[in-house]
């Protein structure tokens, strides 16, 4: 339960981090909050030759509110995302989800960039990135790129990040004014990873659903957007029958695992129930906002 | 290159300077190098909460940080809360409400509760329980721990009572 020996480098710029990653030729790991990485090191599931600590890079811990999106720096801690007034105002669904992430001591350290790079299939932030059509910005020796969240998560703990690439910022699209939102999670104990969680944003236009976003986590190899459910909802008047149909579409879509915490059937059941509940809440909220 | 390197920090207000291997966990550094055995080590993968300390004013699992990462940081351990003859209000509440049995989880419970009290209203027992859910008590003496934190939170809200 002690990590294997590694070399350690605390860098103070993105350039220095990239240089260290390139020099290590795939033998390095980046450490930010360390809340997922250090347990893996302690178990010796990972034995990198070099740990590149990016915590001291200035300028990666920020929240920037823009008209169409909100940019959040990779080193922004979960607790700040949970409590920042600008996120509570403009992305309340994200703040609500962050309150469910692990425990305070973990949220004090864990970072946005770390959670997305780690890509746990039951984590909240990857689901939020999908829900809010996030664009993930990276830096790399070839200059960096912007990756749509939809193209980012490839499998359990697997992303499109290259070994010499560093996630530096995430731009979340702001839901249109008057949108309703909801987030619901079921876990065995408070702070545990979700057995299943669902999140919804939508707005109402002339009494009909517009721009429905439905995202889930914990119920498949990666977090996902429920495209078939969204297609069913789009342009329809909200109601129990419609939401039941959307929940059924989600149950058909997801491929959950059975493990010692829950069976695949139970997780699939939860996915349907949580989608129905989040749709009801989001629609009620959007209706209230329009009244 | 994984040889020892110098790390400087303050621990409970005192400056500390030691040469350590990069892989040395902050929890082992505190206990084995500094002899501060109040910080307990349970699971060593961030689940049990026994090793919770304060890093620059907020809690962290000391088993999920390396000592080298604490360069320049202000660390406070349970030893920094108050000596036996002058307990902090939170420690006093734990004593009054029998908030400990074997004492193994207690340092982590205290450090966690302090951070919770500072950051959340803790207006309900549900909120207190949720806040403490990352700290395991194998004696299962949670009722008394919740009562102690409830009293301490109340005292902080209404200092005169």
From TrEMBL, chain A:
Keyword check for Zinc-finger: no
Gene3D superfamilies on file: 3.30.465.10, CO dehydrogenase flavoprotein, C-terminal domain (3.30.390.50), Uridine Diphospho-n-acetylenolpyruvylglucosamine Reductase, domain 2 (3.30.43.10)
InterPro entries named in the record: CO_DH_flav_C (IPR005107), CO_DH_flav_C_dom_sf (IPR036683), Diverse_Substr_Oxidored (IPR051312), FAD-bd_PCMH (IPR016166), FAD-bd_PCMH-like_sf (IPR036318), FAD-bd_PCMH_sub1 (IPR016167), FAD-bd_PCMH_sub2 (IPR016169), Mopterin_DH_FAD-bd (IPR002346)
Domain FAD-binding PCMH-type: 1-177
Keyword tags: FAD, Flavoprotein, Oxidoreductase
Superkingdom in the source lineage: Bacteria
Any single Pfam family the record assigns to this protein: CO_deh_flav_C
GO molecular-function terms, A-Z: FAD binding; oxidoreductase activity
PROSITE patterns, per database record: FAD_PCMH
Entry annotated with the keyword Flavoprotein: yes
Protein name: Carbon-monoxide dehydrogenase medium subunit
From TrEMBL, chain B:
Gene3D superfamilies from the UniProt entry: 3.10.20.30, [2Fe-2S]-binding domain
GO MF terms held by the record: 2 iron, 2 sulfur cluster binding; metal ion binding; oxidoreductase activity
InterPro entries for this protein: 2Fe-2S-bd, 2Fe-2S-bd_dom_sf, 2Fe-2S_ferredoxin-like_sf, 2Fe-2S_ferredoxin-type, 2Fe2S_fd_BS, Beta-grasp_dom_sf, Diverse_Oxidoreductases
Signal peptide limits: none
Annotated 2Fe-2S ferredoxin-type domain residues: 5-81
PROSITE patterns: 2FE2S_FER_1 (PS00197), 2FE2S_FER_2 (PS51085)
Keywords: 2Fe-2S, Iron, Iron-sulfur, Metal-binding, Oxidoreductase
Source domain of life: Bacteria
One Pfam family named in its UniProt record: Fer2_2
Protein name, UniProt field: Carbon-monoxide dehydrogenase small subunit
Species in which this protein is naturally found: Tistlia consotensis USBA 355
